[in-house]
Design a protein that fits this description.
about 425 residues, iron, Rossmann-like_a/b/a_fold, globular, tRNA processing, Rossmann fold, about 30% helix, alpha/beta, about 25% strand, Aminopeptidase
Length: about 425
C-alpha cells in the first residue's frame, strides 16, 4: 500500500488538496506534516497549525506538527532577504521544507510525499516540482507533483474554506515577503501591524484574540461538539505610544478607548479637580483618577483621555503635566463570536469573553473556558447547555450587542433565567 506524507503550510491550502489526494489515491494511507519555520511571528505559526489540525481532523487524517525552527530558516535564506516573491529565497524555503518532509517520510516508512504549496497560485508549480523530484531522488522516494489548481481547484478550495470558517491569512508568512508586500520604509518610521503586539493582553480584533478563539474551537470540535463562528467588523483602535509626566515625573497610566492622538508634546496645567476628573487649563485632554478598573463604554467623542490609578499618584501635588499620545483608528477591524452547542434552544447559557484589557487582565483564561466546556460536554451534546464566547467585549460589549441585534433581542441573553459564568 502506498503511504503518502503531505507537507502542509496552512488550513486553507490543505482543505481541497487533501480531498484531491484521496480522490487520486483512494487506496493510499495519507498523513500530514505541518512544517513552516518561515512563518512570522510564532502566534501566526500557531494559528495556521490550529486551522491545519481542524482540516485534518475533519477528514480523519493524522497530522504531525513540526518544530518552529526559525533560526535554521534565517540561516538558510541569509543573503536573499531582498529577493522578490517566487525568487531564489522562495526556492531555498521550499527546499528546506520539502527536505524535512522527505526525511520524516523515510523515518516513518512512507514511499511518497508531496506538498499543498502546489495549491497556491502565488507559488511556482514548476519550481516546486523540480525541487520535490530532486529531493525524492536523494531519499529514494517518489514526489507527487499534483496540480491542485486544475479543474476549478482554487474555487473548490475557497468554498470549502468558507464552509469550515477557516482563517485566511493575508501574507505567505515570510517576514521578508511581508516587508516587500507592505512596502515598508523603515527610515520613515513605518511598522507592520502583523509583527507587532500592542499590549500584554488579547486586544479586540488582534491576532491574539483570534488565536484564543481558534484554540477553544479546536478543543470543542475534538470533543465532538457543534461549533460555529460569527465574524463581525467594528471600528478598531490601538495605542502606538503614550507618555504622561506629572511635575516632570513619569506616571503609570492607561488610555481610554478611542482617544485621539496628541500632536507633538503637550504641556498644560491643572485648572481644577472635580470628583475623579482633572480639568486642564488649555487643552481638551482629560485625566481620570480611579481606584478600580473603569468600565470602557463606547463614546461619540475622541478627546484624549488618560486614566490614572489613585495609588500611583498618592502624595503627588498635581500641578504641571506633560503628555504624549499616538493612537491609530482601524476602520475595519474584525472579531468573532464563538457558539458551542444549540444556542437558540438550550435552557442554560454560559457566556465568556475572548478579549482582555491592555494589561491582559479582566479576561478569561483558555483553561477556564475549556474546563467549563469539558464539564458540560454531555449537556451541550444533548442541547441542554450552550457556551458562547463573545468577541470585542472590552470595546463596549460589541460582540454581545451584535448578537442581540442579529437574534432580535433573543431571550437567551436574559440573565434573569439563564446561568452565566
Amino acid at each position: 500500500m502506498d503511504k503518502i506524507l503531505v507537507h502542509i503550510c496552512c488550513g486553507v491550502d490543505s482543505v481541497w488538496a487533501l480531498r484531491k489526494l484521496r480522490e487520486d489515491y483512494p487506496d493510499a494511507y495519507i498523513e500530514g506534516f505541518f512544517y513552516d519555520p518561515n512563518i512570522h511571528p510564532e502566534e501566526e505559526y500557531e494559528l495556521r497549525w490550529i486551522e491545519t489540525k481542524r482540516v485534518c481532523n475533519s477528514l480523519g487524517i493524522n497530522c504531525t506538527k513540526g518544530e518552529y525552527d526559525l533560526k535554521n530558516w534565517f540561516n538558510a535564506v541569509k543573503g536573499y532577504e531582498n529577493e522578490p516573491e517566487r525568487g531564489e529565497r522562495c526556492s531555498i524555503c521550499h527546499d528546506l521544507r520539502l527536505e524535512k518532509t522527505a526525511q520524516l517520510a523515510v523515518e516513518k516508512g512512507f514511499n511518497k510525499f508531496t506538498t499543498v504549496l502546489m495549491m497556491s497560485p502565488k507559488k511556482d508549480f514548476d519550481v516546486l516540482k523540480k525541487i520535490g523530484e530532486d529531493i525524492a531522488e536523494k531519499y529514494n522516494l517518489q514526489f507527487l507533483a499534483v496540480d491542485f489548481r486544475k479543474n476549478n481547484g482554487t474555487q473548490k478550495m475557497n468554498q470549502l474554506a468558507k464552509e469550515q470558517q477557516l482563517y485566511h491569512q493575508n501574507y505567505c508568512g515570510c517576514i521578508y515577503g511581508l516587508f516587500s508586500q507592505r512596502k515598508v520604509n523603515f527610515q520613515s518610521g513605518s511598522f507592520i501591524p502583523e509583527l507587532v503586539s500592542f499590549s500584554k493582553g488579547r486586544l479586540a480584533g488582534s491576532r491574539e484574540e483570534l488565536l484564543f478563539i481558534k484554540q477553544i474551537r479546536l478543543f470543542a470540535e475534538e470533543l465532538g461538539l457543534k461549533v460555529e463562528e460569527q465574524q463581525f467588523r467594528f471600528l478598531g483602535w490601538r495605542v502606538i505610544s503614550s507618555r504622561l509626566q506629572i511635575n516632570k515625573q513619569d506616571i503609570k497610566h492607561n488610555i481610554y478607548l478611542y482617544s485621539d492622538s496628541i500632536k507633538g508634546v503637550l504641556n498644560d496645567r491643572v485648572k481644577s479637580i472635580i470628583g475623579n476628573k482633572i480639568i486642564l487649563e488649555k487643552s481638551d485632554v482629560e485625566i481620570l483618577i480611579t481606584e478600580d478598573n473603569i468600565d470602557m463604554e463606547p463614546r461619540f467623542t475622541t478627546n484624549p483621555i488618560f486614566i490614572l490609578n489613585k495609588k500611583d499618584i498618592q502624595g503627588i501635588n498635581i500641578e504641571k503635566l506633560t503628555m504624549e499620545l499616538t493612537t491609530e483608528f482601524i476602520p475595519s477591524s474584525k472579531s468573532q463570536n464563538l457558539y458551542i452547542g444549540d444556542i437558540y434552544n438550550a435552557s442554560e447559557i454560559i457566556k465568556f469573553y475572548s478579549d482582555t484589557d491592555f494589561e491582559g487582565k479582566n479576561g478569561y483564561s483558555l483553561k477556564e473556558i475549556n474546563d467549563t466546556i469539558l464539564k458540560n460536554k454531555e449537556n451541550i451534546k444533548e442541547g441542554k447547555t450552550a457556551v458562547i464566547v463573545f468577541g470585542a467585549n472590552f470595546f463596549g460589549k460589541i460582540g454581545e450587542n451584535i448578537f442581540k441585534h442579529l437574534s432580535g433581542q433573543n431571550s437567551l441573553l436574559n440573565p434573569s433565567d439563564k446561568v452565566f459564568c
